[in-house]
Design a protein that fits this description.
This protein is α/β, with parallel strands linked by helices. The chain is globular. It has 15 helices and 18 strands. The protein folds into 2 domains: 108 residues, Urease, subunit C, domain 1 (Roll), CATH 2.30.40; 294 residues, Metal-dependent hydrolases (TIM Barrel). Helix 1 packs across helix 15.
């Protein structure tokens, strides 16, 4: 083995072997090659490095299916404005960001996500040709795409939706070129999903072209769906239907789609998206900050696949699990088997992996799968006692409790610090980029 981890408590994500005490994990190259409860009779496999993980809990790496890493630039401000930054006056917008600023801010967001245990993020915003490889250098799995749209985003925050064919052609071409250049690079850690921004910012014609391009190139599709009442009103006015009806009519509403938010769906919409078995990128903390929540209990019962995401302004998927669990219980008005810690762990791991088309490779700890895992430090006051390790993580844990992260068999976070990059430099460069953007926004 290249690496052997001993004496670990393992939450494998495999229903047949969910909790393993005093377990041994062996990693060879980029795969899990050994996984079992310690056998005191037979000797351990030989390894180049052995880590004693007594007092640690190991989970699969988290799959964060919907992020905008650059939007760390509006952290702590946009949350209190009540709406998504692209639609909000007085804050920096995507069209304001230079390529260098995009790289600085994207690296900050990707670093934060990795430190907090997200071994894969699915990101979209601007200058993806520069940000995708820059984020990949930090060590995690990164899927990315520039936002595909044909609305003039420089007018949307003024409540003006003006669709321009040339904008759609450019953003779609850039997405296709990004996939041709970077999809599958860095030992398969980089990927591209076609990121159609939202039904109200994409014309019907552009959405059809996204569908065709994704099919032709074998790529997944993600978008915002029913994220605002304005979106619903715009599509009703423009197309005479709801956003989910529009995507269904076009042929994008299927089990290959990752749809973020899904807040303003009527009962017919919920039945429709459930029947299509779409992957809902549930963003419980971000949406609750704005006073909303997806009807995840109804969506689950209808057949939709619920995954978890941080969206923008923070990257703690552990906190998102807690919000997802509690919002589900609020909708049920009780504690039941329908919403338990294992429910949200599945959403954050194998559920997200399946949504990304990677369920056979990541999302659970099993022999033969990629060695993507997260080690939590349980030797802390708030994690003691550890009667139920998963309960501790979901109810009282934080991303800051992550001590080690392994991606593709390589340690990328150790002692809660990034191994491959200078995280203080990343922080300084991002702070300077955000400072410049806010100064320009205030002056405009």
């Amino acid at each position: 083995m290249d690496l052997l981890i001993t004496h670990a408590t393992v939450l494998s994500g495999d229903p047949d072997n969910a909790l393993m005490e005093d377990a041994v994990i062996g990693i060879k190259d980029d795969r899990i090659a050994h996984l079992q409860v310690r056998d005191t009779i037979n000797p351990l496999p030989n390894a180049d490095r052995v880590i004693n993980a007594r007092g640690k809990v190991i989970t699969p790496g988290f799959v964060n299916v919907h992020t905008h890493a650059i939007l760390t630039m509006v952290r702590g401000v946009a949350e209190d404005m009540g709406f998504a930054p692209a639609y909000t006056p007085g804050v920096p917008h995507g069209h304001d960001v230079t390529p260098d600023e995009a790289v600085a801010l994207a690296r900050l967001g990707a670093l934060e996500a990795l430190l907090f245990g997200s071994t894969l993020i699915n990101d979209s915003y601007v200058h993806a040709d520069k940000t995708l490889p820059a984020m990949g250098e930090i060590g995690g799995r990164v899927f990315a795409c520039g936002r595909i749209h044909d609305v003039d985003f420089s007018r949307v925050h003024e409540q003006i939706w003006e669709h321009k064919t040339e904008i759609g052609e450019t953003t779609l071409k850039q997405a296709a070129e990004l996939a041709e250049t970077w999809n599958g690079k860095m030992n398969g850690r980089l990927g591209v999903h076609m990121a159609a921004h939202a039904p109200d910012t994409c014309s019907r014609d552009l959405l059809e072209k996204v569908r065709d391009t994704a099919l032709e190139m074998g790529l997944g599709v993600n978008c915002h769906l029913a994220q605002s009442e304005i979106e619903v009103e715009r599509i009703q006015e423009r197309d005479g239907m709801t956003p989910s009806e529009l995507l269904d009519e076009i042929g994008l509403l299927n089990d290959q789609l990752i749809a973020a938010h899904c807040l303003f769906l009527n009962d017919e919409d919920i039945e429709r998206v459930g029947k299509a078995r779409i992957n809902v990128a549930h963003i419980p903390k971000g949406n609750a900050t704005g006073g909303t929540a997806a009807q995840t209990s109804k969506l689950r019962r209808a057949g939709a696949q619920i995954t978890l995401a941080t969206d923008n302004m923070h990257a703690d998927i552990v906190e998102v699990m807690r919000w997802g669990l509690n919002i589900g219980r609020l909708q049920e008005a009780r504690v039941s088997e329908f919403w338990q810690p294992e429910t949200v762990l599945e959403m954050a791991t194998i559920g997200g992996a399946r949504a990304m088309g990677l369920g056979n490779e990541i999302g659970s700890l099993e022999i033969g799968k990629k060695a993507d895992l997260v080690m939590f430090d349980f030797e802390q006051v708030h994690m003691t006692p550890a009667t139920d390790p998963l309960g501790n993580i979901v109810h009282v844990g934080q991303g800051r409790d992550v001590e080690m992260v392994i991606v593709d068999g390589r340690i990328v976070v150790e002692d809660s610090q990034a191994v491959l990059v200078d995280q203080n430099q990343i922080r300084r460069e991002a702070a300077e980029a955000a400072k410049n953007l806010w100064e320009r926004a205030k002056a405009s």
